[in-house]
What we know:
Nucleotidyltransferase, domain 5; five-stranded mixed β-sheet; globular; binds adenosine-5'-triphosphate; binds fe (ii) ion
Amino acid sequence: MIILGIESTAHTFGASVFDGKNILSNEKKAYTTMSGGMIPAKVADHHVEHGAEIMSLALKKAGMTFEDIDVIAYSASPGIGHMLRIGAVFARTLSLKLNKPLIPVNHCIAHLEIGRFLSGFDDPLLLYASGANTQVIAYESGRYRVFGETLDIGIGNFLDSVGRTMKLGFPAGPKIEKLALESTNYIELPYNVKGMDVSFGGLLTNVKNKLNQGYKLEDLCFSIQETVFAMLVEVCERAIAHTGKKQVVLGGGVGCNKRLKEMLKKMCDERGIDFYSPENEFLVDNAAMIAVAGHYSLETIEVAKSYIDPYLRTDEVEIKYRN
Ligand code: ATP
Ligand code: FE2
């Protein structure tokens, strides 16, 4: 079965061809800026402009044409409405034109499923650290449950906000990582873990104030990373202790950060459990994960009933394929 995956929940438009065993292509184009954040209407225009070309490229790289597709999986939730709508329109149009079924996919679950697929782990816990989301997710009784999460903004949005104040452009995560390598001078910052959850809002205000007080960017970037990644690793470790899971996978764009991978791996090694981080192209938003998750679910939907849902939560989706 040939599945075309379409991703468009945020800044990235992606298309991927998956044959049920191999990811044959994984193409994407991401909206970026030199300074300032992303404006949803502009990102939607970007996806309209590049969507068809990305899908054609994905098919070409897979050595296929549109007629070879059996099913179309699209990211239906959660995400920013402006952008979700564009991917859904491409998916519905193809479904009608090719007379092939549609599968709606939850983007957060897809981040977990691509890790599960690539690692070969059967039942991992996912640390999902991306722009809009920060969650610790694992399977339990028919659903992917959220064992811990951010109480305010996602870790990537936090890093991007810090970066915007530092005039680093978007996305700022990689630039903060680079600056952090230039320092080992830790500046005390608020560490906000509340039970299984984390919070970044207070830290953001604190860092913004420090930026006006003459602290070196390198020192701040180093200290920010050490603080927020320790918070994530702590809630992840607590969730492992609670669930008894023996495998951890990483997902989300912030997972590209080498220091986060290093800290997470160390914690897993100390507990004697397995850790796997996908290659960066599968950590950031990508369509291969939508195709893979669609292949696991195979729950098709008619075009007339197809939907987007910007706010659907991970644990609201019933998982029928893991019983
Ligand atoms: P989602 O929709 O899954 O919540 P997202 O759409 O924002 O997330 P991702 O591609 O998963 O997208 O992640 C993007 C985020 O990852 C941005 O906030 C970016 O700054 C951050 N990021 C990318 N590379 C790094 C890095 N090396 N270190 C830290 N953060 C990074
Ligand atoms: Fe994502």
